[in-house]
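Posting for a labmate who doesn't have an account.
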Amino acid sequence: MEDSKLKTKVIWQDDHKYLTFLKKVFRHEFRKNWFRRLSTPNLIELKYIKDIFWDDYDKYSYNFDIDWLWEFALKPNSSILTLKSYIDNNMSEENQPIYTYYMDWFYPKVDWEIKSVWLFWWDVIWEDDPIIDAQLIYITYSVLKKIWLESEVNIRINSVWNKKEQTKYIEELQNFYEDKKHLLSEESLNDLEKNPLALLKAKTEDEEILLEKAPKITKFLKKDSKKHYILLKEYLDILSVPYMEDSSLILDYPYINNSVWKFDLVSNNEVISSWYRYNTLSLSLWNDKEIPASNFSVDVFKLIDLLKQKDIKIRNKDKLDLYFVQLWDEAKKVVLPLTLEARDAWINTSVSLWTPSMKQQMLKANKSWAKYVVMVWIMEARNWIFQVRNNVDGTQTEVKKEDLINYIIDKIWKDNLDFYEPSRDLLTD
């Protein structure tokens, strides 16, 4: 659910069911490929954002100060924080490369509005081989195949060279549009002067036609950049990942080099996953040399929306076996300890402890899809004999309080009891 002013979200119960599912699927894929989880703070000192983005820093992050000495930004991504920690802790002495992944909230600034997104994000540090970029793309494609969404996306790739190649290309691009200014929108005329690469995203029909004839990025790649791009495509072919080359694909970050890619929806071109290689980011963080690195992210909210649109449902693992309804305080005092006893016996149990009518409570019990409903009024509480309704076949019987737990166990069979206990996952040896 989105807050219209801040573009932030609350993840409600139904979406959490999808989120939990996606976390398990992606986490399994990460672990198979030897990625290890890492967590980063939500705040980053603003000085690092300024060092990276210079005068445009306010365009990329939501910034604030605690007092005149402390300026911070909400993290727009994790690669900045991870690479900074990597440098500060001299992790170049560790086994290389380092594979990390994150599952967290991020706060990119989009159209000058703060936005909260839940992303699966992963980085590989200290490896320049394009096979790493291909691996990141392959992992995402594999997950989409497993959740039946691979046909819903296009995979686009491009190469954005190094700084020297970029400078030459920008000159050619400006020269191309110089005698065509009358066909450009006001926004694009401004981009021609300040940010020529933005012209690769056409804003009008005339600009789409011009873009087809404009110089292509890949024509300006020199030996090393060209080799990197060719190898990326070869590795994707080996991995049987379908892709299309898109010479207009540019990501608006100053520290990107070589490979860029994105997954967008076939239906409306909305981007659900993207990112890039960022070897030069380390220089902006005051490291004395480039540190090869590559990352990828997936917008989880968009995946959840896509699963819902395709009517792909998630199996409900929280099925109830037993539901207690009661009326008045005397019944509550009997029911509450019984629910605890049932849970200790590994029976999936829920209870209504509120005091409206029994009819309302029964409606709630029926919506829970519990197999058995125990009904306790004042007389039942005093006599210790309860009405137990079988919601599967619609029958109803009386059961003594002292026999209730064993009665339910016999009915649902021991094999169906929930014997999972999270604390057993802890290793003490």
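Reply:
Got it, the structure tokens are right above this. The two ends are 44 Å apart (CA to CA).
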